[in-house]
Amino acid sequence: MTTTVGPFSPGESWLYRLDPRAKLWYALLGICLCLVASRIELLVGVVVAGQLVLVGGGVDVRRIAALWGRLALLLLIIVVGQSLFTPGGATLVHIGPLAITAGGMLTGLRIALRVAGAAIMAATPLLTTPINLLVRGLEKVGLPYTWGMTVGLALRYLETLAGLYQSIGEAQQARGWDVSSRNLVKRVRAAVPTLIAIIIASLRLSDSLALGMAARGFGLKRARTHRADIAMRGADWVALVLTSAGFVVTLWLSLSLL
Amino acid sequence: MMGSAGSGKSTLCMAVAGLAPRLTGGNLTGKIAVAGRDVQAEPIGGLADVLGVVLADPTGQLFNPTIADEIAWGLENLGVPPAQMDDRIRRALAMVGLDAIAWDQPPQTLSGGQQKRLALAAALALEPQTLVLDQPSGGLSPAGRAELIRVLKILREEHNLTVLMTESDPEFVSRLADRVVVIHDGQIAHQGTPAEVYVEVINHPKYGIVVPPALAFTEEVRQRDRAFRLALTIDEISRPSKKPHVTPMARAVLDPPEKHVHPVAIQCQDVSFRYGNGPEALRRVSLTIPRGQFAALAGENGAGKTTLARLLVGILRPTNGRILLNGVDTAGTTVGTAARQIGIAFQNPENQIFNATVAEEVAFGPRNLGRSGDELDSSITETLKTFDLEDLRDVPPAILNLSARRMVALASVAAMNTPILVLDEPTVGLDANDLERLTGWLTTAHRRGVTILLITHDMELTARCAERVIILDHGQIVADGTSPEVFNQTEILRQSGLEAPFAVQLSQRFAWPALAADLTPGGAARIWSGEQP
Fold first, then answer.
1. Which of A153, A193, A214 is closest, CB to CB, to B63?
2. Which domain range does residue A178 map to?
3. Is A256 in the same domain as A170?
4. In a domain, A151, yes or no
5. Do A211 and B80 make contact, defined as CB atoms within 8 angstroms?
6. Residue A152 falls inside a structural domain
């Protein structure tokens, strides 16, 4: 099993080799497009394009599938919720006092595509850039190093905390808490102490992290140096231009098709 | 620095490093100087170029994507020119014996012992004059511990580093330290050479310091022969002038299992397991543990011990084979249901503490098993008493020190009163007093007929309590037998990163098998002195 640090896993393709700034720019414009575009066809286009970039960029298909797996429930809730509670257009089906309308379903689909598109765009730099280079990229575009480091550490420890959530749940079950119950109230009640334990563990981890980092000179008012620095190459500029052009064209299409 | 949990030794180390009280809270009076520099006058982290710190848990120190990035990170903070970095990384890795390791490997792929050494290398790359180490040997296998001792000795002898460490393993300390400072209730209670201090602490159990087995042995021999010289390590014990002929008593054995309704408590039939698409963590493990047996499961870090424990309680499901608890296949049962049969104390107490008070934490399991009213109250009171937690009854467990948190986690499992117990590394971070309480509870539970599977690197505890030892290596059982049988398989122990308990090593050193008859330093001392059991 490959051990990874944060969402990144190593790769050799062109996408992995791109400068973090080019990928951050791509993510930023992609997310903007998802927020601005309203036509379903365009949003589908953005999602498909984002997916093709990930696959074409050599990202492990299992990691892409895992991303979709994490999004699936949220997307389903959005589509079902909007279909049931947003009125508009013809009524398709009656479910007791509720009705699924065509307008509601379209709105749900639109929001779900926006969320999926934004998630794919945001995931692209995260899945393909080591955290330290991502932090360096953020620093180079003007973010203070400590801010970039904070973002990097949050990403680094996200999986640790997710693992902790699972471990605490397992510990509860091992002490007789049967979560196979279908009682929703019982399940929610089980989650509360778990969350408290995670908050406590996060505080303990952040204390330990603060001590460990300070002991190695973090936060000293000295000019930092960089063992592996980043530099924009020709390919990075090309990617930047193509991304910008793609953004302008899609934005124009979106506005002209309104 | 040695002393009971919560005595203040780690706080003192953090104050020396200039991190307490500024990052931890609290007030500091008096003055601390490191390399002639006033610690409080330096900015936070300002001592990084003269003093390196390695924390007890490397998780808080290893956060970079690769080994090279991890070591370079501190150098970058200090503004070291990039052209010098690779050379300093290379030297730091060589100093801790990791020179053969791939630089682009994520730190998380290393074993526990290697992670500690990497954290040490990250501190050493900054070329400090002083090192502060908080519990460096905690959680390491005997092989990992031996490697760390070797590295620290070289650092002392060849690089003339000053080392200040907190440590609870007395042998680790006696192999390295020139001086031991005993901290008790936030004050220096004793100081001197390890020999001077250990001799003193034998009579002061309140300090919570474990007596090294060699000292326990020589002290007991000295009670019969005042001329006998005290020793801290096996190397210091002089050859016996005579070997009195004594017929040792056989070790106590359990009631035969036929007495029980179902003779087998745990049965693993050809069990294999792999995480995702990774290599097999367990390979065709077949194991039968009779009801009422006290078995120890040992092996190097990553051998598959914790995986086996998680399979037994049903958190993981075997990719191949079957697991039966008291004759019932666990395949069809949930973890919650299996909890009526088997209780588990996990390696990390953080992962099993989630209630507002110690009493609620202890009550969580029994309440889920359907106990209530007076039955529940009396079982909580009894358990709190066993683990000396009565005074902490209404305290939030999360704010306790590691030793106390571990005792709460163990008490929470004990209160469930299950017929089978699995304890995963329960001794890490415990001081001598808590260790004694744990041993007392295990002995009582064993006498009551509870089946115990103890996962540990602590061979002295194993020798004292377990009647059977099972050794896992790379996911396979490589040794399984009575404790004396397995402890005498020197080569298998060595290959599995383990070492025999003191009494067995002593018997081998002086070719005197009777010394290892009951596997404890006290038993060896009695044989040595010619005392008939």
1. A153
2. 157-218
3. no
4. no
5. no
6. no
pLDDT tens digits for B328-353?
999 988 898 899 999 999 988 877 88
pLDDT in tens, B306-323: 999 999 999 999 999 999
Q: Do the Cβ atoms of A224 and B86 come within 8 Å?
A: no
Q: What domains, with CATH codes, occur in chain B?
A: 9-209 (3.40.50.300), 217-239+503-533 (no CATH), 292-317+330-502 (3.40.50.300)
Residue A37 and residue A123 share a domain: yes
- Statement to judge: residues A208 and A189 lie in one domain: yes
A176, A211: one domain: yes
Task: Give the closest-approach CA distance of B233 to chain A in angstroms.
Answer: 33
Q: For residue B339, give the nearest of B425, B405, B417 by alpha carbon.
A: B417
Interface touch B365/A175, C-beta < 8 Å = yes
**Would residue A22 count as lying in a domain?**
yes
Report d(CA A184, CA A169) in Å as an integer.
16
Q: Judging by beta carbons within 10 Å of its beta carbon (0-12, 13-18, 19+), is residue B240 exposed, middle or buried? A: middle
Contact A176, B368 (CB under 8 A): yes
The pair phi, psi for residue A146, each rounded to 5°, is -65, -35
B90/A contact by beta carbon, under 8 A: no
Q: What is the pLDDT of residues B466-514, one digit of tens each?
A: 999 999 999 999 999 999 999 999 999 999 989 999 999 999 999 999 9
Which of B64, B277, B339 shows the shortest C-beta gap to A1? B277
Contacts of B30 (CB under 8 A, 6+ apart): none
Give the H or E element holding residue A163: helix A145-174
Residue B532: which residues within 8 A CB-CB, separation 6 or more? B246, B247
Whether residue A253 is contained in a domain is answered as yes
